[in-house]
Amino acid sequence: MNILKFIETFTDDSLMKSTGSRRDSFTQFGNIGKNLALASIPFGLSALTGKAFAKDITATPATPIGALQFALTLEYLENEFYAMALDSGVIPASENGGRDLKVFQQIAAHESDHVAFLIAGLGGTASANFVPKPTFDFTVGGAFDPFNDYPTFLALAQAFEDTGVRAYKGQAANLISTPDLLTAALQIHSVEARHASEVRRLRGLKGWISNAERGTGMPAATQAVYDGEGVTMQAGFNTAAAFGAAAGSEAYDEPLTTQQVVDIANIFIV
């Protein structure tokens, strides 16, 4: 069976129309996931041994289902990180007149919504395509203390959001022939970019990445998030020619491959 043709015949324009309710979108998106399972697309993260993102895995298959499973695990990570932070009280209620707390409450709500949306897209928790949430250790064995130290929390929040932006971009090719799924991923991607910009500004940085710099106060362990961002040649055009390398690199984000993101996520998965 031609899987991509199957998806194209199944997709419904009502999936992403603004006139539909969120529940309708979940239902339509979930139906795509269920039918993809019936079409026997190779599993992505669900095919891994024991847990998602085990340290000895290879990159997930370059399929629509693989991309959704990959995205879900990243959303699990962000969702749990913010939920734990809000529960811990590490975000000062008085910081910036209470603005920081409101920002992270809203980001947490977004991430929770993304998790629910992607689970629906995979056909629900009973689907063979569903991947369970891994076990996370945001302290990395005691190396970090994000739920007692606000600057550490902010640094990890920046790393996770910057990773998410590049990770979604890296999955675009796997979804290019499935327009509804690509649209859904792009809608999440743009929100992740807004999160990243806001968190960076809360840390006193620019809202965008310069060269391959992780920024002041970022742990060295997060450098993999920023490696490769210093590209200044885009489609044969030297973006640094007019305004310099920093501005040239800032104007374009670079994708991360599945394996690069797996390596980053592994740091926080036990």
List the helices and strands and how they pair.
Blueprint: H1 3-10, H2 22-38, H3 64-88, H4 99-121, H5 150-170, H6 172-175, H7 179-202, E1 233-234, E2 237-238, H8 240-243, H9 245-250, H10 258-266
Antiparallel strand pairs: 1-2
Helix pairs in contact: 2-4, 3-4, 3-5, 4-7, 5-7
Description of the molecule:
InterPro entries: Ferritin-like_SF (IPR009078). It comes from Flavobacterium johnsoniae. The chain has 270 residues and is mostly helical. The relative contact order is 0.14. The protein starts with a helix and ends with a helix. The chain has a single domain (22-210, 258-266), classed as Ferritin, core subunit, four-helix bundle (Ferritin, Up-down Bundle). The chain is 52% helix and 1% strand. The chain is globular and about 50 Å long. Strands 1-2 form a two-stranded antiparallel sheet. Helix 3 runs antiparallel to helix 4 (99-121). The chain has helices at residues 3-10, 22-38, 64-88, 99-121, 150-170, 172-175, 179-202, 240-243, 245-250, 258-266, and strands at residues 233-234, 237-238.
List keywords for this structure.
two-stranded antiparallel ribbon; Ferritin-like domain-containing protein; mainly alpha; 10 helices
* CA-based shape: globular
Low-confidence stretches: 1-23, 36-58
What is the number of strand segments?
Answer: 2
Q: What's the helical proportion of residues?
A: 40-55%
The name of the CATH superfamily reads Ferritin, core subunit, four-helix bundle
Q: What's the tally of helices?
A: 10
Q: Number of domains in the coordinates?
A: 1
Name the strands of the widest sheet in spatial order: 1-2
Pfam family, one: Ferritin_2
Protein name: Ferritin-like domain-containing protein
